[in-house]
């Protein structure tokens, strides 16, 4: 009864941690495509091909349901995967919708028409590919009206995290927040629209200043998956063993995961 968790690298571990806390009896198989990270500067075709390869590997581990714990893959590839590629007995779910449901104060899976919501000025921090896909704005428009979104493509942050360079990652976050605030001085809410960014959530929050509500996906995705599995228990696949797989160098990836998550995580070769 395993569920798969996919990311281009280490970022999905922020979601994985929340999933394990929320659903302790479910074995999660994590797949980090560290050999090909970052995805955020790749083309949509490239992201589609890499994401399909990772999801197939998770299906082979007995995970009939895979969470794309990667906004870039969710934005650039998920719709095409669902429409053209995922067979009827499997599911691939993204991380955008739970976040937008929370931002727009909806119940999980509430598909009623868009309506006015309290939050009017939203800062979105995401990878260049996620920002240029406009997938966040599209999903938001299905659910809310009158929300002004200012998006900042945060080039370099994922690369610095994947390279284990915390100081560079922090400096880049501060400069991206400053750049956004020049265009939107007083956001009410900020979305960390890349699963790597919660690893630096404190730096984002400090740079944004008090009074800005920072949304990150981990707990929201965990709640929404728990709700999904209650409604569709059949999608917990036959796999039994929790594990961490990487396309990168397993030892180096384990060390960097341990550095950022502050707990020992051991990857094996995918
Ligand atoms: N964690 C991925 C995301 O949420 C990072 C993408 C990348 O590899 O650039 O977008």
Fold and architecture overview:
The chain is of the alpha/beta class and 270 residues long. Helices cover 44% and strands 18% of the residues. It contains twelve helices and twelve strands. It has helices spanning 12-22, 44-60, 71-76, 78-84, 96-103, 128-133, 135-141, 157-162, 166-183, 201-208, 218-231, 250-261, and strands at residues 2-7, 28-32, 63-68, 91-93, 115-116, 121-126, 144-145, 148-153, 189-192, 213-215, 243-246, 268-269. Helix 1 (12-22) links the parallel strand 1 (2-7) and strand 2. The longest helix has 18 residues, at 166-183. The protein is globular. 48% of the residues are buried. The protein binds D-glutamic acid. The site of D-glutamic acid (DGL) has 17 residues, from helix 3.
């Amino acid at each position: 009864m395993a569920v798969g968790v996919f990311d281009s690298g280490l970022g999905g571990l922020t979601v994985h941690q929340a999933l394990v806390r929320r659903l302790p009896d479910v074995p999660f198989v994590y797949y980090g495509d560290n050999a090909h990270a970052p995805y955020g500067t790749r083309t949509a075709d490239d992201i589609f091909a890499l994401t399909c390869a990772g999801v197939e590997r998770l299906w082979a581990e007995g995970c009939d349901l895979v969470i794309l714990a990667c906004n870039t893959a969710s934005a650039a590839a998920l719709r095409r995967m669902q429409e053209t590629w995922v067979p009827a007995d499997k599911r691939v779910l993204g991380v955008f919708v739970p976040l937008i449901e929370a931002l727009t104060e909806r119940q999980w899976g509430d598909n009623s028409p868009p309506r006015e919501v309290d939050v009017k000025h939203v800062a979105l921090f995401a990878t260049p590919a996620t920002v240029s896909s406009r997938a966040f704005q599209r999903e938001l428009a299905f659910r809310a009206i009158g929300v002004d979104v200012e998006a900042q493509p945060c080039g370099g942050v994922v690369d610095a995290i994947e390279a284990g360079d915390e100081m560079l990652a922090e400096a880049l976050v501060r400069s991206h927040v400053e750049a956004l605030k020049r265009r939107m001085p007083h956001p009410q809410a900020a979305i960390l629209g890349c699963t790597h960014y919660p690893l630096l959530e404190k730096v984002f929050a400090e740079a944004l200043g008090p009074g800005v509500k920072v949304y990150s996906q981990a707990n929201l995705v965990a709640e929404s998956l728990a709700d999904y599995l209650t409604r569709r228990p059949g999608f917990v696949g036959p796999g039994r063993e929790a594990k961490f797989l990487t396309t990168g160098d397993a030892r180096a990836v384990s060390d960097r995961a341990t550095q950022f998550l502050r707990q020992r995580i051991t990857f094996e070769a995918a």
